[in-house]
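Problem 12. The chain below contains 310 residues. Write out its predicted structure in token notation.
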Amino acid sequence: MATRTATAERSTERLTLGERVRMAGGLMPYWLVLPTILLILVIAVYPMIDSIRISLLDNPLLPSPNFVGLSNYLRVLGDPVFQGATATTLIFTVISVALETIFGLGIALLINKTFPGRGLVRAAILVPWAFPTVVSAQMWLLMYNDQTGIITYILQLLHLLAPGDTLIGSSSGVIIASLITDVWKTTPFMALLLLAGLQVIPAELYEAASVDGSTRWQQFWNITMPMLKNPLLIALLFRTLDAVRVFDLFYVFGQRSVPSMASYADFHMFAGTPDEFAPGVASAVIVFILGIIISLIFVSMMRDVVREAA
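Solution.
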């Protein structure tokens, strides 16, 4: 009896670090993941920390640069071009993610059903996503071309464009062209993630709802959407982060005339004067911070979903 009491008291005490390590299998698991941790530190963590350091200098390309604090950030935030790039990026992010979510959910609902050739259809819709973004942008650039572009020809035929004009000839046109290309390329990714969420929903729920006389629309709102909240948030997190750091599309379609936040940073770091390098790094750090804020928001939302489910 005394032994059991002592054991119970011991189990209620807080375990020390050494006891936790022994319970988890000793040091072997930590040795096994050590190479991966070191690789992440070298190729991810160190460049991020060094970028922050560079963004606080006046001209890091000089042998002895001066520390200027947040001056580069204030310079970037006060630049009308960066303000326009921020507005362009946010507009692109909101519209592209919304359209890809709607179309992706529709496609996921369709291919989740059983029909002949379903496997072939699932493989075929992933083809646009398999192309690198810069390759997709170059392909669509040919279709936006003012001489051989089929899209330009159709828009001119419908009198939506003037003769000799192109869709990428204006700032709004570049955003629209980027949206079209991005929705075409990335909707399959959204559909794939949402399809994975749909396939874990028990079919018995729909059968029971049908017996109770509920319509397809009621089943969608009362069963599908609540059960799909967490996969949907994960898909939205991935796509929002990807859209915020969009580079390839605006680099190909907009160049310097209509930059995104990421292409603005690239032009200043690698196509500007030495004096523009540090502000370019500062703008890249701003994109990174924006990504962290978005991640924290979505992670908080996912935690709330888990608490509701529990």
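Discussion. The first helix runs from residue 2 to 12. Students who got a different answer should revisit the alignment rule from Section 12.3.
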